[in-house]
Structure formats: C-alpha cells, structure tokens
Design a protein that fits this description.
The chain has 407 residues and is mostly helical. It has 19 helices and no strands.
Length: 407
C-alpha cells in the first residue's frame, strides 16, 4: 500500500512529521555546541565565531523563500527530500573539509539551506492535512519538536565531540537527515497543491506584508527568533564560561548536557503557550511571554560566578518564557493565511524571522568583543541584554497596534 492510499490519523500525521523534524536536525547545533573548542583551535574572535553561528541562518534565509513558496506548487515531499540531502552534504562536508573561518562559513551555510527546505515545508506538509484546533495543536507539537531536535543535537554533539573529536560530531549530524527523508517520503501522504503554476512571482512578500491579519505575527516572529537563536548560539559557550569561574565547574560535555536539558524545556513552554493562547487569546499570551522573556534576558549574563545551579535554573526559566509564544505565533500565521497563499505567506514569515536569527549571534559576538571579551562578566551581561531588547519593548508596538485598530 502506498502512502497515497494510507489514511493516517491526525495523531499519526503529527508524530510522523515531528519524528522527521527531530532526525533532520542532528547537525543543527553541532557548531554551537563545539564553539569553545573550534574557537580555540582556529583562533576565531568572538565576532568571527558569531558570524559562523549566524551564517547558518543566512543559508536558511536564502533558501526558505523559494523552497517554502514552492510547496504551493509542487508536492512538499519533493522539497523535503532535496533539503535533507543538502543537510547531509553540509554536515559531511564540515566534518571532512572545514579548517577555519572560510570553510566553516561555507558548510554552515549549506546546513542552513537544508533547514530552509525542511522546517517550514514540513510544517506546511502537516498543516495542509488538518484544520481548526486539531491543526493548531499539531503545529504546537511540530514547533516543539524543533526544541527536541536541537536538544538531542546539543547532547550528542557534545558527547561525541568530547569522546572522539569535533569531526565525528558532524558525521553524526549527517546521518539524521537521511532518516528524516525516508520517513517523510515513504509514509507522509502527498501534499495538497493549492496554487496554479501561472506566471506569478515565486517569492512575493506583498500579500503577507499588506495583510493586517498576518503582519503582526511576522513582526512578532522576527523578535522571537532574534532572542531565541542568539541565545541558542551562545548558550554552551556561556555555560562553559560560568562553570570556569567555579571550583566545581564542568567540562565542555557537561556544559553541553546542561544546555540540552534547558533546550528540552522548550517543548513544554511552546505547547503550554499554545494551549494558553487557544484558551485566553493569542495576542495576550504572545506579548506577555515576549515581554517577560526579554526582561529576563537582561539578567542572564550577570549571573556568571554564582553557583551553576542558579545559572541553570534562571536560564531554564528564561528559555520557557522565550518558547511561550513560539507555537502561538506559528499557528496564528497558518490560521490567518488563505489556503492558496499559505506557502507564500509562510515563506515571508520564515524569511523575516530567520533574517533576525542570522543577525542575533553576530550582534551578540560583536557586543561581547566591544564590551571586554568572553572572559568579562559585564560583556556577557550586555551581550545577553542585546538579545532581550525587542522583547522587553514589545508592549510599545502592541499598544500602538491596539490604539490604531481602535481596540
């Protein structure tokens, strides 16, 4: 029986795509987990290290407008398969050929291109099969699987890198996308193609940016991604620094394990936030979580030197708050987008959101360099504050939006 003939329940569809997403991300955090080792081995400045972390999302941004928009025109499974093969090639290439800044930039960008063809196209593949609250909850679990995938990438990358060397961590990262491709392309039903081929532009942001229902979610996602991916890119390095200030400090593998445990709380925050949004309203939940996480970011860097348990608990709380608006934002954009433009609008949503994700690690590294370097507590405090600024100020645009809309 082919996948086209097999009828899957909403739970089975959701579990299938969540599993594929987790496997597709095995190489996602290999670089950021091993950043302290690679920065030392290659003599990278913090700005250069941040650029390598950010170029991953630049690759994503370059690919996602075309690849996600194409899901309105061709079966998303074809996009997903090609992207998984690209992720495999990027991680394998990093393991075999990366020797410094230039080669690391090239292969990180390729891995990011792979994510651009799996994350949103996979979400569209799932969303097109469902409707209503079932769709919203499925999206909540799917976005939460991003946190599970990143957590497993951190813990496996840290453990394998510590035991066998950083190259083998990237070899491990190359295997998962092949499993993801097999799952999605053999078990997932064919995607629903809504748009005609015609002569319409492959990437046209105007329908999304002119739509008053979708624009607030796009802006919110940019602020969300700026804080989230900046924090993810530097989390292991900060935990390693905080641990180095204590006599009972942990090694790299221990810092990676702590970061993975923090990441595992992301699905809890994401799913809980989405359920609260269904009950109390998306706007209220999104802005509350965004503002609180932004304010919390201002305190993280100053905690270095305190017991590692205190740092861990505070970062865990911050991470849950950061993810509290994740699924609510994504389910909101899917619900607000007309079905025939869903892929195109999701492409704009993802493009702008991950442009912010590209900038955040770089800005963090520049602030770290300018403020005193990665052995200075004040520099870490200011760098984390640079991530939280948009969330902390989020009540201002919300007030303006409500005032202009007469609500």
């Amino acid at each position: 029986m082919s996948s086209a003939d097999r009828r899957l329940t909403p739970v089975q569809l959701t579990a299938l795509m969540c599993g594929a997403e987790i496997f597709s991300m095995t190489g996602f955090a290999a670089y950021t987990t091993l950043l302290p080792v690679l920065q030392r081995e290659w003599g990278l400045s913090n700005s250069e290290a941040g650029l390598v972390g950010g170029i991953y999302y630049a690759g994503y941004v370059a690919a996602t407008p075309v690849l996600t928009t194409l899901t309105d025109r061709v079966d998303p499974r074809r996009i997903y398969l090609a992207a998984c093969l690209i992720s495999f090639a990027g991680a394998a290439g990093f393991a075999l050929f990366a020797q410094g800044l230039a080669t690391a930039l090239a292969f990180q960008a390729v891995i990011g291109i792979g994510l651009g063809g799996t994350y949103m196209p996979g979400l569209k593949m799932l969303a097109d099969q469902l409707e209503g609250n079932t769709q919203s909850r499925a999206i909540g679990f799917y976005t939460a699987s991003f946190g599970v995938g990143s957590s497993l990438s951190i813990v496996t990358g840290g453990a394998i890198g510590a035991a066998f060397g950083w190259q083998w961590a990237f070899v491990s990262g190359a295997a998962g996308p092949l499993l993801a491709a097999a799952l999605a392309n053999t078990l997932m039903p064919p995607g629903r193609i809504h748009a005609a081929h015609g002569r319409a532009a492959l990437f046209d942001p105007r329908p999304a940016l002119k739509n008053r229902r979708t624009l607030p979610f796009i802006i919110g996602y940019a602020a969300h991604n700026y804080e989230l991916f900046g924090q993810r890119s530097w989390m292991v390095a900060f935990l390693a620094y905080a641990a180095s200030l204590r006599p009972d400090g942990v090694a790299l593998a221990g810092a990676a394990t702590l970061a993975a445990l923090i990441n595992m709380l992301g699905p809890v925050g994401s799913i809980s936030g989405n359920e609260l949004a269904i009950r109390f309203g998306r706007s209220r939940v999104i802005f509350t979580a965004m503002c609180l996480s932004g304010l919390a970011a201002f305190g993280i860097g100053w905690l270095a030197g305190l017991p590692l348990a205190v740092v861990f608990v505070f970062m865990s709380l911050h991470y849950c708050l950061m993810l509290g608006d994740s699924a609510a934002l994504t389910s909101g954009i899917v619900a607000a987008a007309p079905p025939e433009l869903r892929g195109a609008i999701m492409a704009v949503y993802s493009f702008i959101g991950f442009t912010a994700a590209f900038l955040a690690p770089l800005v963090f590294g520049v602030v770290l360099d300018l403020a005193g370097g990665n052995q200075d507590r004040m520099a870490w405090g200011l760098a984390f504050a640079s991530l939280g600024i948009f969330g902390a100020l989020s009540p201002v645009p919300r007030w303006l939006y409500l005032r202009c809309s007469g609500q």
